[in-house]
Amino acid sequence: MANEDQQAVERLQQVYAKMKEEVGRVIVGQDEVVEQTLMAIFCRGHALLVGVPGLAKTLLISTLSQALELSFKRVQFTPDLMPADITGTDVLEVNPETGHRGFRFVHGPLFANMVLADEINRTPPKTQAALLEAMQEHHVTVGEHTLDLPKPFFVLATQNPIEQEGTYPLPEAQLDRFLFNIVVDYPTADDEREIIRRVTSPSDTTVTPSLNAEEIIRLQAVVKRVPVGDHVIDFAARLARATRPKSDEAPEFVKEMVSWGAGPRAGISLISAAKAHAVLRGRFHATTADVAAVAKPVLRHRVITTFNAEAAGITSDEIIRRLVETLAPKSDIVL
């Protein structure tokens, strides 16, 4: 790695510590969620945040956008939301002086650096597909026109895991577009007391930006250049292939409890996320330990369990944990 890249990694580690402090002024706890969201951003990826209502998912993302000095838009997804509501549309304008009529494109909320797709499974497939194009291609198509989205561009979508009535579950193909599936869990007892104390007290907390869009784009390029050994790539590939029940490389418990495993994009995501995981810790190379550390958020939405596994209470997280135990060097196991 070049000296410039080493300096950039060192600066990012310092900025990351400062950023956690700034975000901590607004958000109590959730350090792992903050770290995984930042890893997704530095990998040019998108993240799905899954958690019950009231866990400050929206506040967390808007606070991060302030810390990163990025434009932020929130879209509340509903059953009547149409693609034009998020991409934008042409409107007819009349010049009051000349009487000339013409169309002008009005940009939708997707034209922001960071977009929060709140309760993405509440909207029909047509609107989900419009968002999917933006996530994958970083542009939107309206009529005959294709318009580029701002750089950097990230979609952070939320889902409520306990209320599924009247929803449109994301198909596996669309879930696979998300780099991470981040579980936002309940706070600890101490954190919950601190949340109650802060929210019920006067506060005018402001977040000081730690990075900006140009610096993020440069750091994304640095993360992509992080070197990875062949044995690390081999481990990521074996881990992804071992989730496929019809593969000869799958352990018996996978063949019994998994109906569908991860595709090739999972291995790519494991290595990309491992690079970001290493960089946030000030290291200039990714190891198998980094791959093991990001295995759950990368794979949990790509491993579909069988009915028997669900009935027995076996989750995809448990299967991934067992796979890491089976395949990783013992010193690298991250449970």
**For the largest beta sheet, what order do the strands appear in spatially?**
2-5-8-1-9
End-to-end Cα distance? 30 Å
Using DSSP, what is the number of strands? 11
CATH topology of the largest domain: Rossmann fold
- What about the largest sheet? 5 strands, parallel
Number of helices: 14
Shape summary: globular
Uncertain ranges = none
**In what range is the share of β-strand residues?**
15-25%
CATH top level assignment of the largest domain? Alpha Beta
The CATH superfamily of the largest domain bears the name P-loop containing nucleotide triphosphate hydrolases
How many structural domains does the protein architecture include? Answer: 2
The helix/strand class is alpha/beta
Note the run of SSEs as H and E: HHEHEHEEEHEEEHEHHHHEHHEHH
State the CATH architecture of the largest domain.
Answer: 3-Layer(aba) Sandwich
Round the mean pLDDT to the nearest integer and report it. Answer: 84
What percent of residues adopt helix (DSSP H or I)? 40-55%
Radius of gyration (CA) equals 21 Å
Description:
- There is one protein chain.
- By secondary structure, this protein is of the alpha/beta class.
- The chain has two domains: 3-79 and 110-215, Rossmann fold (3-Layer(aba) Sandwich); 226-332, Magnesium chelatase subunit I, C-Terminal domain (Helicase, Ruva Protein, domain 3), CATH 1.10.8.
- The protein has 14 helices and eleven strands.
- It has helices at 3-24, 31-42, 57-67, 83-87, 125-137, 172-175, 189-199, 213-224, 230-241, 252-257, 264-279, 288-299, 307-311, 316-327; strands at residues 47-50, 72-76, 88-94, 101-107, 114-118, 139-142, 145-148, 154-159, 180-183, 258-260, 304-305.
- The strands form four sheets. A five-stranded parallel β-sheet has the order 2-5-8-1-9. It has a two-stranded antiparallel ribbon with strand order 3-4. Strands 6-7 form a two-stranded antiparallel sheet.
- Strand 6 and strand 7 (145-148) form a beta hairpin.
- The longest helix has 22 residues, at 3-24.
- The radius of gyration is 21 Å and the shape is globular.
- The two termini are 30 Å apart.
- The mean pLDDT is 84.
